[in-house]
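stuck on this fold:
=====
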Amino acid sequence: MRQDSALLGTHLGDLARQGRFIYTLMRFFFNLVFAIFLIFGCYQGYLWWKNRNSIVLDLMNVRFATRKVERNYGKEVEAICKELDFPHQSYFKALIILESSADKKPKTRYEAHVFERLKAVRDGEMESYNHLKQADLEGFSNRELTELATSWGPLQLMGYHTLKLKIPLSELKSERGLAHSIKWCKKTYGNYLTKNDYENAFHIHNTGKPLGWFSKPQTHDPYYIFKGLRYINALERQIEAHARAEKP
């Protein structure tokens, strides 16, 4: 009888220990799952906070940029578009933001690879570059080629485009530089702007060619087109707001 009681006690003790072990194990897993959910929730909260701040900051940047371009170039762009009978002022204002940050005195940008190609065409080592042939560059010095390989003005138009516009480079550097640049845009890809195909217009201005059917944008900034469209939308909303405010 005593032996049976001892065996029963031992068995009950084993069950109690097993119960405590199972309880401890379950508690550990519960705490682990809770910790995982807590970390996940905190991470999602951080992402929400970060995205919220990014969206607010982005909206502030768009608002600042559109106000800046209106202040520095708004009336000039509108006058040029009216003169050319080419009502795409919002596109050109957005393009100015993309190309020169709408700075009143935009910086120039020299592109060494363009210089090398122009030099190769001039020296007969290359047949053509962007429709320019050796005859177009005959007599140009390296210094002059350097200026042709530099982008100028609010739209950062490459100097060599003046050859097709049949104007001296000094015109692109002058106060009429923006008007000449817009004329070049109208002549080069105005058909896309007429159809309000701003995606291709932005891509052509930045890369010299339209978007491919299935290829990714080849712009130096992968968000170049996206930003441009956002600026256009913001500028158009400003025009609509002014129109509503002027109504009696």
Remarks:
- Confidence is low (pLDDT under 50) at residues 47-57.
- The beta strands are 109-110, 128-129, 132-133, 150-152, 157-158.
- The chain has ten helices and five strands.
